[in-house]
Design a protein that fits this description.
This protein is an alpha+beta fold and about 140 residues long. It has a single domain, classed as ph1033 like domains (ph1033 like fold), CATH 3.10.590.10. It is about 25% helix and about 35% strand. Strands 2-5-4-3-1-6 form a six-stranded mixed β-sheet. The two termini are about 20 Å apart. It comes from Bradyrhizobium centrolobii. InterPro entries: 5hmC_binding, EVE_domain, PUA-like_sf, THYN1-like_EVE.
């Protein structure tokens, strides 16, 4: 299993909206960056992803699961981009803020810190364990 982080502005798509979709999940569409696209392509069914509220809140709020691997993004008229389907797995007991991530020396190399504008990012197993601990799960 691999680990990821996906970002969404809560005013566009929030954790609560993701949770409301239940077991059928929702397509993670609208990614228009080629590095993020490649990360979507690399996701496998059963992988886990942190759900990060960007811009508004700037915090990891939950864990999602990849339930369908990459397929053509229906919102992309160029045919160059893909999406995956994700479902909410569980919320973090305590959201992990960007400030808390930056304050943790062991997370200094985390993609969330180094590539803050990248909307779909890999997360190492060690980073995953530490953030889960910080979030109380």
């Amino acid at each position: 299993m691999a680990y990821w982080l996906v970002k969404s502005e809560p005013s566009v798509w929030s954790w609560d909206q993701q949770v409301a979709k239940g077991a059928k999940g929702e397509a993670w569409t609208g990614v228009r960056n080629f590095t993020a696209r490649q990360n979507l392509v690399n996701m496998k069914k059963g992988d886990k992803a942190f759900f990060y509220h960007s811009n508004e809140g700037k915090e990891i709020v939950g864990i999602a699961e990849i339930i369908k691997e990459a397929y053509p993004d229906p919102t992309d008229k160029t045919g160059k981009f893909v999406c995956v389907d994700i479902k909410a797995d569980k919320p973090l007991k305590t959201p992990v803020t960007m400030a808390a991530v930056k304050a943790e020396k062991k997370l200094a190399d985390m993609a969330l810190v180094k590539y803050s504008r990248l909307s779909v990012q890999p997360v190492t197993a060690d980073e995953w364990k530490l953030v889960c601990k910080m979030g109380g799960v």
